[in-house]
Amino acid sequence: MEKKNILTYEGLQKLENELQDLKVVKRKEVAQKIKEAREQGDLSENAEYDAAKDEQRDIEARIEEIEKILKNAEVVVEDEVDLDKISVGCRVKIYDCEFEEELDYKIVGSTEANSLQGKISNESPVGKALIGAKVGDTVKVETQAGEIEYKVLEIQRSN
């Protein structure tokens, strides 16, 4: 059985929009590039043709990847997230005991994770440790740099 891809509604929308763009816009653009490159004659030494075919292959691979993610998607309804404990779809405020700083994260499925946007995966070491914790709990996370302690300050809806 294939692994379920946990997505927030926002993540689902983003993937559906990207898929639509790839199928409708990008496919046409790359087909036009290939057509123009073919019209230049000899394809054996045609860099534009090779680049366009590479781009076409990348687009088709991404379309296949998104379709596979969506086929096995399980959407978290963020309005129904239980705020008693941390779960996918909620926003958490935690306190890093070592660096004495507050951190704000949204817990998402692995396909949406982006640490630069404050979105951490439920499968990451920190995400895994936080899942199920309640306000006031202290969780320990085993990392390559050693053990880190976080205290859960707040759990809220992400929207």
Task: Characterise this structure.
With 159 residues, the protein is an alpha/beta fold. Strands 5-4-3-7-6 form a 5-stranded mixed beta sheet. A two-stranded parallel sheet has the order 1-2. The mean pLDDT is 92. 38% of the residues lie in helices and 28% in strands. A hairpin with a 2-residue loop joins strand 6 (138-143) and strand 7 (146-157). The two termini are 32 Å apart. Helix 1 runs antiparallel to helix 2. The protein has 3 helices and 7 strands, in the order βααββββαββ.
Strand content: 25-35%
Overall morphology: elongated
The end-to-end span amounts to: 32 Å
Structural class: alpha/beta
Please state the average pLDDT score: 92
Task: State the share of residues found in helices, binned by percent.
Answer: 25-40%
Sheet bearing the most strands, described? 5 strands, mixed
Give the radius of gyration.
21 Å
Question: Secondary-structure element order, as H and E?
Answer: EHHEEEEHEE
What order do the strands of the largest sheet run in, or round the barrel if closed?
A: 5-4-3-7-6
Stretches with pLDDT under 50, minimum 5 residues: none
Features of this protein?
159 residues, alpha/beta, two-stranded parallel ribbon, 3 helices
Secondary structure layout:
Layout: E1 5-8, H1 9-38, H2 47-71, E2 73-76, E3 90-96, E4 101-108, E5 119-121, H3 125-130, E6 138-143, E7 146-157
Parallel strand pairs: 1-2, 4-5
Antiparallel strand pairs: 3-4, 3-7, 6-7
Helix pairs in contact: 1-2
